[in-house]
Every structure is written in C-alpha cells, then in structure tokens.
Amino acid sequence: MSIDMAQFHQVFFEESFEGLEAMESGLLNLDMGDVDDEEINTIFRAAHSIKGGSGTFGFTSVSDFTHVMETLLDEMRDGRRQVTQTAVDVLLGSVDCLKEMLTAIQDEQEIDEASVAEHKKTLEIELNGEENNSVTVETSAVETINTELLQADEDGEQGWHIAFSPHTHLLKTGNDPVRMFRELSGLGELTITVDFQGVPDLYDLDPEECHLSWDINITGAISAAEIDDIFDWVEEDCDLAVQSLSAKAGKAQITSTPNPTAATVAGQDETHAPTTETQSQVKAVKTANKPQAKKTNKEVAKSSAKGSGSIRVDTAKIDTLINMVGELVITQSMLSLVGEHFELNRLDQLKNGLAQLERHTRELQESVMNIRMLPISFVFGRFPRLVHDLSTKLEKKIELVLIGENTEVDKTVVELLSDPLVHLLRNSLDHGIEMPAERAASGKPETGTVTLEAYHRGGMIVIEVRDDGKGLNKDVLRAKAIEKGLIDGDTVLTDKQTFELIFMAGFSTAEKLTDVSGRGVGMDVVRRNIQSLGGNIEITSELGKGTTIAIHLPLTLAILDGQSIAVGDERFIIPLGSIIESVNIKENMINRVAGKGETFRLRNEYLPIVRMHEIFEVKTALATKLTEGLVVVVEGQGMRCGLFIDDLLGQQQVVIKSLEANYRKVEGVSGATILGDGSVALILDIPGLVRLSNQ
After folding, report:
1. What is d(CA 367, CA 544) in angstroms, rounded to the nearest whole number?
2. Are strands 213-219 and 159-166 parallel, antiparallel or unpaired?
3. How far apart are CA 340 and CA 391, in angstroms?
4. HSE toward the beta carbon, residue 96, CA cutoff 13 A
5. Residue 544 confidence (pLDDT) above 70
6. pTM for this one?
7. Treating both helix axes as pointing N-terminal to C-terminal, what angle do 113-128 and 60-77 enclose, rounded to 10 degrees?
8. Could you tell me the maximum CA-CA distance found in the chain, to the nearest angstrom?
9. What is the DSSP code (8-state) at residue 258?
10. DSSP H or E run through 46
C-alpha cells in the first residue's frame, strides 16, 4: 500500500520555515574570520534538514539549491573557508530565495526560476571564485574522474555496485532505505542482497533503529550523478561505497564516510591524492552535473492540500488539559447521580457539585487559552535581519536589543502584530537614529540602539519600541501639521497631543522620500491596526535623547475579564484592565461649561463625564442626576474619563464576539458577548469612549 506523502507537506513547510529562521539568526550572529563551531553547525544542520526533506517530497529545485548552500557552509564548518561579510550576505540572500521557493510551492505557484538562477550563480561565484557558472579545475584531477566515474567502461558491463550500510539512527532522521531502493529501481535493473549480521536478538531490538546493510548491483546506462542524487540525503548517516561494475584492478572507486569531505579516490598514488581544494571543486562539478527535475514543482505540489494554520504545543500543556477533562468527567458523573435521585436533603451536595463544575470549567478554559499562547519571539525573531539590512542600506550603525522574548501572547495577536511593529521599527531606524558622524558630534556613541521590549501589565501585554536617537521636535511637528492643514494655527496642544500628530493620515516630516519611510502613510495605519486589536498606542519623546512608542494589547482576543454594569435595562461590559476606580460624586465636585459638557474633580484632576444613557440612548435609565448614580473612572490611550452609570453588577469572564463582522462598526463598542441568561451585552471600547468624551 502506497503512502500519500502530501499529508506530511504542511509539517515539512512549517519545519523548513523554522529552519530558515534559525539559519538567518545564526548567520547574523556569526563573527567575521573565526568560525563558532556551535553556530555554524546549527546553520548547517538546518540547511541539511531542508535539503533532505525537500528531496524526500520531490521538491528537487529546493534540494538542488540548498545543496550548493550546504557546500559553502560545509567549507566554513571544516575550516577550509573563513567567514566573511560577503559570504554571509550571499547566504542571507539565499535564505530569502529559499523562503520564496518554499512559499511558491506551498501556494501551488510557479517558482521564480530567474531569481533562483541568479542567487545560485551568486552562491557558486562565492564558492568557486569564478564569474560564471562553469567550474575550471586541473584536467589531471577532474577529467580523470569524469572519465572513470561518470562513464561506464565500453568493454564491460554497464552499471554500479553499491555497498550501503546505514548508521543505526538513520530511520530517526526521516530517511527510509525502501524509498531509496524504489528510486534506484527506476534507473535500471536492480539486484539487492541484505546482510542480517548486525541485527540484535528480538528482546534487544529497537524498531526505530536500523541494523541492516545491503549489497546492491544496478545495471544500465546510469551516471554517477544519478546515484549520488539518491544517496545525497544520507551521506552523513551511513557508510557508502560505490564502484563501477566494469572497474578492473586499479580503477577508480568512490568511498563515502560519515564526513563527506573525507571522500577519496582509491587506486591513485598516495602522492597524487586530490587536495582539499580539488575535492571541493569536484563536489561543485557533481552539483553542476545533477540531472534536471523530471517534473515541475507545481506538478509535484498539486496533490498537496493547502494546510490551515497550526500551532506547536508543549506536551505539558496537553497533559494539563487532559487532566482537567478527567476532572470534569468525574464532576459530571457526580451531578448525574445527584440528579437521578434528587431530594432536598441533597441540596448541599448539588451546590458543591455546581461550584466544583464552575471551578473546573474556569481551569479548563484557562488551559485551552494557554494552548494558544505563543512567545513574542515568534514576532521579534524577524527583526535582527531587518535591522541588519536597513542599517547597511542607510549607512548607519545600529544595535538591536531584544528584551522579554519569552513573554507569551495569543496566537492571533502574534500574527496581527508583525506588520505594525515593522512600521515602527523602520521609522526608528530611518527617522530616529542619526548618522554616525552626527551622533559623534552630539557626544553620543556612533552606534545607535533600538530596543524592543515586551512585558505583561495587568491584563495587557505592553510592547515598547525605544531608540536613543534625536527624538521628536514638537515645534517641527506643530508647524508641519499647520502647513498640511491638519490643525488650525491657534490650536492649543499638550506635549502628548503634539506627539500624536504623527498618527494623523498624510502626516510626515521627512525631507525627502525614500523606500524606507517618509511617504506620510504607515503610522495612521499602525494606530488603526492596533485599535482593531482592542489596544492602544502611546508616544513619549525627549529631544536629543530618543523616543519610546508603547503598544498596549489584550493578552487574548477571545476572552476578557470584565466588569458588568447596568444602565437602565441594558447591560454593558467594561474591560477590567481599563477601570481605575468607582466613585459617588457630590454636587460640589461637578463643573459645567456651556457647550463643552461636564467635568468632575477627582484629587485635583478634572475628568470629563460620559453619560452612558445619553450616548446609547437608553430611555429606562434610573439615574439622570450625577449625584444619583455611580461614576466609573476608566483610562484609555493614556487619557481618563468618568462613565456615569446606574450600578455595578459584578465581575465575570466573557467570550468576545465581533460586532463589526456580524453587524457594523459602532463607535465606543469593541464587541459583544452573550450573558448567562441568554441576553446580549455590548463590550465597551474605552479608547473610543474617551475620544467621544473629548469631542
């Protein structure tokens, strides 16, 4: 029975993209000159895994491209080549090319062959020091090998003898000898002899280990490159010897060992053994001579159903979830027994069972939500490369500092957070950090610092983008806003309001347009995207010292802790993290300004009052005088106001339902939820209500 390999494609793509991220991170951390063995091995293993997986699934264009990258990395790993900035840049470009190739295959699109060819050419130039794709080596070394290895002897039988002895761990790498034999059988007539000598006794046998070895004869007009293609993926996981069937005494024989660079050409004088440099060149020749894929990538990927989003979960979280389900089953069984023979004297038992059910349900809910939590490093991981590329392009010296990478946040928030952070980071690099000469002239280090920090505060996650650049000039911001007609010349603004001008659509202080930033688009989109996630964004800045932009987001977009309030017959939910306090106000605390609304004084601070029954047109409100009801002091986007309501009902966790998706966007409302009695309550958007109060 054949196995449908398409079912494993999604896992392969996920692991490949993770491998590419590891390669990118490792390349950015490499020191020029000397090789860090651990770092270079991590990069090499990621490339090797991608090559092996893509070969297994038939994505030959990916495996061929990765093979050239692997050759370059192999030479760095063995100390034959020093790490240079040029080589790192070439490999980073190749990582980008691989991402594009894998994305195209995953989306069942055509690969950009021109881009692949260009990156491959750049790799080969870096590898061989030539300005074309051909490889020139001495005739005595390569032509002899081409003659003796890649052609069968005309007088003898055409074909190859292969001695294949896998290491015990080979099956655990995802490789399967049966698949290799199947590929070999497609090349010619196959005769296989299996050696059972290495198989242990039954009780000592581990089914995940390989203890067999094989002697294989394959006949036909087959090139060495075709044999090499099949065993290329296991070269470090086996002992392999390949010899032409027509070889006589003294003819060439290839012997592969766990270290691919140790390959020798037997039958030659010891004094004429190929040098390390020649071996590298021969390896490049073999790569260049590999046969083209028999099918296009689109044809291969056609049968692969496009996978949906997935998430990797720690088994400890799964175990906790299973335990909670077990507790729920026990509680349900207990309540069933109480219900079958219910009597009034068992009322306490029923109450205890319901309390236990409530507790287990809450714990189960927390466990399920915990499964969706991912470390913010999934977002932060892409930014070292961004800073590396942009700082080079802008000719600036910039260091990126990451803090709180293990802070966890909901998967949906992680996915939607990436683009806004890219905008903010690019602005810091382009507008915030000065040129080295300018920094030196102002007494700063030539290298600027941009810090990305994530931490929890209350029920929110806070992400700060800080730079030690030139900061925001309030006078320039105000003048530019007046020039563009965004504010009137006599408008009085606080420092905070002045800084927030950069979030207005079409606002930009850039003196010239670049492809990095400065077109007056982006920051308004950033704010809108953050607000759509139920969060807010704040700016603080000091001229000559730097700027900090803080993003406040809910930990999850599915459930929130809320305070239920009553306004007449209506119920509303206030996010608990937005509430400062609740107060009963007296007449002497109230100030009324004609045409400007009402404020009340709270500890020497005057806060605007939002009458909830007026905003939402609730006719059944019990309290219409400010001294009769309650005022809930809330904060949003760094500003406070008081919500005038009838009463506080209680705290509860609520499941958020999108109002915009099911109805339309309503100012001051972020969503809705269904209460225990089946009624619908609106969830208040506190920043939106603060904006309404300011209007």
Report:
1. 47
2. antiparallel
3. 72
4. 14
5. yes
6. 0.57
7. 20
8. 114
9. S
10. helix 37-56
Contact assessment for residue 386 and residue 423, using Cβ atoms and an 8 Å cutoff: no
Residue 238, strand partner residues:
166
Q: What is the average pLDDT across 511-540?
A: 68
509 vs 395, 472, 473, 474, 514, CA distance in Å? Answer: 20, 10, 10, 11, 12
Residue count (the chain): 695
Express each pLDDT in 73-120 by its tens digit. Answer: 888 887 788 888 888 888 989 899 998 999 898 888 888 888 888 988
How far is Cα 241 from Cα 164, in angstroms, rounded to an integer?
7
CA distance 659 to 182: 56
* pLDDT higher than threshold 90 for residue 448: yes
pLDDT at 649 over 80: yes
Q: How many CB atoms lie within 10 A of CB 605?
A: 10
Mean predicted confidence (pLDDT) in 340-362:
84
**Among residues 471, 656, 477, which one has the least CA distance to residue 548?**
471
Question: Which of the two residues, 173 and 26, has the higher pLDDT score?
Answer: 26
Output helix, strand, coil percentages for the chain, rounded to the nearest 5: 45, 20, 35
Work out the angle at residue 122's Cα, subtended by the Cα atoms of residues 119 and 123, and round it to the nearest 5 degrees.
Answer: 90
Whether the predicted pLDDT of 154 surpasses 60: no
Query: What share of the chain has pLDDT > 70, as a percent?
Result: 81
For residue range 133-152, what is the model confidence (pLDDT) as tens digits? 443 333 333 344 344 444 44
Q: Measured between alpha carbons, how far apart are the two ends of the chain, in Å? A: 71
pLDDT, mean of residues 218-234: 82
| Helices and strands (H, E) in the chain, number of each type | 22, 24
Burial class (CB in 10 A: 0-12, 13-18, 19+), 291: exposed
159-166 and 546-554: which strand pairing? unpaired
642, β-bridge pairs:
609, 633
CA distance 125 to 134: 9
Query: Which of 288-292, 324-328, 451-455, 570-574 has the lowest average pLDDT?
Result: 288-292
CA dist list (Å): 432 to 206, 277, 395, 495, 502: 60, 48, 14, 18, 13
Measure Cα distances from 567 to 412, 573, 644 in Å. 32, 11, 9
Task: For residue 289, give both structure tokens.
Answer: 């001579």
Short-list 380, 474, 473, 461, CA closest to 425: 380
DSSP lists the bridge partners of residue 467 as: 450, 547
Token pair of 471 as six digits:
């900061």
628-642 burial string, b = 16+ CB within 10 Å, else e?
ebbbbbbbbbbbbbb
Q: Is 327 exposed, middle or buried (0-12, 13-18, 19+ CB in 10 A)?
A: middle
Query: Computed from CA positions of residues 524, 528, 529, 533, in that sequence, does the dihedral angle turn out positive or negative?
Result: positive
- What are residue 21's phi and psi, to 5 degrees? -65, -40
Is residue 219 within 8 A of residue 188, CB to CB? The reply is: yes
User: How many CB atoms lie under 10 A from the CB of residue 90?
Assistant: 20
